[in-house]
Amino acid sequence: MAWATPVRVRVPPPAPRSLCHRGLSSLTQAKSWRESYTELKEIVVPPHCNHHGTVFGGHILALIDQVAGVTAMEHCGSPSVVTLSMDRVTFYHPVKEGQMLHLQARVTYTGQSSLEVYVKVYGKDLADPGRPPWLTCEAYTTFVLVDANGRPVPAVPPLLLETPEDRALFEAAAARKEARLAEARRRRPQL
Description:
Number of helices: 2
CATH topology: Thiol Ester Dehydrase, Chain A
Largest sheet: 5 strands, antiparallel
């Protein structure tokens, strides 16, 4: 039995909407990242720790995939999304047994059949309320909306870009996507 139950919180969308990145109005079912924003909180317990008493990196990676997957499903309005990739994850600071992990996930990019979800992971010491939360790691994950046969479906709702920050995150995500595609072409084995 788990010691703590993960909690997911959704933030309501704002009332006014702007144009989405595909140049369409909000009548095309474009969505704000706020509509699928997801949080997950979990207390670090002994089964999730290494011999140093800190959380296993692999456990954090699994939580990142989980919270990002829920975010992608919420944005697409479908459970039929699969993880395509997780960009390099660097662990900045450890989280110890008894401390809390707090994951925050938001959509930063949408294509025709794929979307990127950015996840920040914070640590928090519940025994020291004066200590501010610290950034543990961050990750960019890519998901693909698929049909029953596992083939990509070009039906991902476009992302509304409401602020300069939204646009900057979207442009950076588009550049990461191009870099991933170029790397995939370079690594593709010759037949």
